[in-house]
Each structure stands twice: as structure tokens, then as C-alpha cells.
Amino acid sequence: MSSTATVAELNCVGRKVILDRPRIMGVLNITPDSFSDGGRWLDVADAVRQAQAMQDAGADLIDIGGESTRPGAEPVSVHQELERVIPVIESVVARLRIPVSIDTSKPEVMRQAVAAGAGMINDVNALRQGDAVAVAAELAVPVCLMHMQGQPRVMQEAPSYTDVVHDVQGFLLERAHHCEDRGVARGNIVLDPGFGFGKTLQHNLDLFTAIPAMAAHGYPLLIGVSRKAMIGQFTNRETDCRVAGSIVAAALAALKGASILRVHDVAETSDALKVATALWSPRA
After folding, report:
1. Which long-range contacts (CB under 8 A, 24 or more apart) does 165-169 make?
2. How far apart are CA 14 and CA 126, in angstroms?
3. Which of 13, 83, 153, 209 is most deeply buried (CB count within 10 A of its CB)?
4. Are 186 and 180 within 8 A, CB to CB?
5. Are residues 136 and 28 in contact, defined by beta-carbon separation less than 8 angstroms?
6. Which CATH class is domain 20-277?
């Protein structure tokens, strides 16, 4: 990269994430039923310690969520989601130097989370709920738009596409353009193909192969495959034993052009990225 090249950055309420290299988003679920860490961080003090540990291990952002989106997950109310996430966001923002992202699809949660200090919105529903687009435009923070076929309770029952790469890319670009037309700055938009959200293993494989093509559209690409079922299908390991498979997938996604990697295992992923990028970089 030349010294005059423009490097994308996300301005998360004054805390910037410069996308000059793949960045790590650590997962912090304040839920009793998330597929990997459900129930572990319900206490605010425990959640803050975990966020601090992830920052120390190399996380560039912390993604805080109060509603599970695993297959079969039940929805929660706005009130319940706010009760879970707001105290954690306030405490984490007060103690950490890196930005916090709010993982939600609810406009009111977005609004109150940003008021509490969150600097990014991560929406599995791509701002399709209520007035979410208008709220995101008003808040003027970066937002990740994810593709999901169906809803969490039923999304894995029988996912089907004409052409998964064409369909997912088309959806994400349409949503990005829709948001831009309604006031969301292009530089605040991140795209996520939504691995495991209404996709079979073959769909996930096709999308992974297409990461370079999706990244070429100019929007930063967020990839989240950490500990997911696709890793278990390759390794035949249970969720907590998918660390090695997850970090390999993260490193490969980074080499293919992903800008942000959403992971549970921050230290291991950070080490893997350092080694992968060092060995992959062309030498004179």
C-alpha cells in the first residue's frame, strides 16, 4: 500500500477503528441462551472483566448483544434487552479504550445503546425493523448490515437460494444503497454475508469462496464464523472445542479480504492473524 492510499476507518463516536489491517471484534453476549457463551457474562462485573481481557488480548472492538440469534432462539422484549445491555455498555465504555458495538435489530435499543456509549450498530436484520434506518442515519455511527434468510427460530429448517452468492450480494448491496439514500453515510456501512444464518454448509462454502468478490464492492466486510456449526461439521467437535478450526477460518477470511473478524477467541485469532499476514505478505 502506498503512503498516499486512502485507508478506510470507522469513527465510533470518537473511537476510531482504522481498517489498514484485519481487525478483531470480540463477542460478548449478555444472554442466557447464546450458542457459545450464553449465561457466562450476565453479571456486569464478569462482563466487564471479559471485555477487558479481550481488549488486552488484541480485540479492536467489543460486540455486546442482549438477544440470542442462534437457530431456534426465542425473541426478547425491548425492555429485557435494554436491561441486559445498557449497564454493561456503560461500564465497558467507562473502562476500555476500544469501541463498543451493539448487536441488535431494535431501533430503540440502538438509540439507547449509543446514548450509553456504544459507537457502532451490528444488525443481523440489516436495519429492516421499524424505523431502524432513520435511527441509524440520525445516530451517524457505523452500522453492519447482515444477510439472514428467515428468522432465527426457523432460518435453518430449509434454506434455499437460486444462487447463494448472487442472492446474498444483491441483498447486501440493495440494503446498502437503500440506507445511503436515506441518510446513512457510505463510509459508515459494513457488510456481513451472515454465515450460518439461513445457510447450508454448501451455501457457507460458496460464500466463503466469494469473500474477495464481496469485498471488491468497496464496503468493509465483516466475517463471523467463530465456533459456528460449519466449523463443527468440518471437525466433528462440539462448540467449545472449535477454537482451532475457528482461527484457521478467520485467518483465511482475512487473507481473502475481510476487514473485521467477529470472534470468541481473541488471543488465538490475534496470534493467527499476525503469523498468517507475516507469512503471506510478498517478500522482495
Report:
1. 165/206, 165/207, 165/210, 165/213, 165/214, 168/193, 168/194, 168/207, 168/214, 169/210, 169/213, 169/214, 169/217
2. 24
3. 13
4. yes
5. no
6. alpha beta
Structure-block grid coordinates of residue 150? 428467515
What DSSP assignment string belongs to 189-219? EEEE--TTSS--HHHHHHHHHTHHHHHTTSS
pLDDT tens, 252-267?
999 999 999 999 999 9
Q: Find the catalytic residue in 106, 175, 227, 228.
A: 228
The set of cell numbers assigned to 140 is: 451517524
pLDDT digits (tens, 9 = 90+) for 115-142: 999 999 999 999 999 999 999 999 999 9
**SS3 assignment, position 18:** strand
Count of Cβ atoms closer than 10 Å to residue 186 Cβ: 11
HSE of 250 in the Cβ direction (CA atoms, 13 Å)? 32
- Strands 9-12 and 120-123 come out as unpaired
The conformation of residue 242, written as its DSSP 8-state character, comes to -
Give me the amino acid identity at 20.
Answer: D
User: Is the CB of residue 127 less than 8 Å from the CB of residue 133?
Assistant: yes
- Bridging pattern class, strands 61-65 and 100-103: parallel
Q: What are phi and psi of 185, to 5 degrees?
A: -65, 140
Query: Which three cell numbers mark 217?
Result: 464492492
Q: How many CB atoms lie within 10 A of CB 127?
A: 28
pLDDT digits (tens, 9 = 90+) for 195-214: 999 999 999 999 999 999 99
Q: Is 228 a catalytic residue?
A: yes
pTM of the model as a whole: 0.92
Among 70, 111, 175, 262, which one carries the catalytic annotation? 262
pLDDT tens string 156-176: 777 889 999 999 999 999 999
* pLDDT single digits (tens) 34-93: 545 556 667 899 999 999 999 999 999 999 999 987 776 778 899 999 999 999 999 999
